[in-house]
Structure formats: structure tokens, C-alpha cells
Write a structure and sequence with these properties.
The protein is mainly α. It is built from five helices and two strands.
């Protein structure tokens, strides 16, 4: 009897989970046998992944150009002076710190430009 109860509880849990997903939207699809089945629709992110990747690439390009044009010591001096400011400036300094990707791209770009 407990096996049947566990099986029933699992089925109720699956149905409740499907119902909560369907409250966010659903679509009707027809199976090969002609039965119309409602399936929950996926929730899409407000910001597409492609936009995030473009912003990240733009940030690295900006950091690379600054690092190439200023040089590493002058760039680091400016980041250090930015880190002495307000909380927002400290966050900007943390984002703008020299990382391996920007450093490698900067060295490659300086070889191309010179």
C-alpha cells in the first residue's frame, strides 16, 4: 500500500509542478495521434545572452584600447586613484583592473600597431 501511495504522491507532485509552470504561459501542440496537449512555455530572459556577450566584448575592447594607449603603469595608476573614491568608483576600479585577457589582447594590439 505504501508503494501505491508514494507513486500517487509523485504523480501529484509532477502535476502541481506542471501546473505552476503553465501559469506563466502555455501552448497547444498536437501529437501524432491527434491528441491536443498543453505544454508549458519557456520563460525567456529579459536580456538576451547575445546582448550580454556583446557588452562583455565591448568592455574588453575598451579596456584593451586604454591599456594599449596609456601603458600598463599609467593605466594601473589611474585604476588605483579610482579605487580611492566612492563605492561606485571602487566598483568601477574593480571592473577596470588589469586582467589576463585584456593584458594579452593589449600586447597583441601593441605588436600590430608598432
Amino acid at each position: 500500500m505504501t508503494g501505491k501511495q508514494i507513486e500517487f504522491d509523485q504523480r501529484v507532485h509532477r502535476l502541481n509542478k506542471k501546473h505552476s509552470k503553465m501559469t506563466r504561459g502555455y501552448r497547444a501542440t498536437m501529437r501524432k495521434d491527434g491528441l491536443v496537449v498543453m505544454k508549458p512555455q519557456r520563460v525567456q530572459s529579459a536580456v538576451p545572452a547575445k546582448a550580454l556577450l556583446i557588452c562583455l566584448a565591448g568592455l574588453f575592447a575598451f579596456k584593451t584600447l586604454l591599456l594599449t594607449s596609456l601603458g600598463s603603469s599609467a593605466y594601473q595608476y589611474r585604476v588605483d586613484s579610482l579605487a580611492q573614491g566612492t563605492e561606485v568608483e571602487k566598483a568601477g576600479a574593480w571592473i577596470m583592473q588589469i586582467d589576463p585577457v585584456s593584458q594579452a589582447l593589449s600586447s597583441q594590439l601593441s605588436k600590430v600597431l608598432r
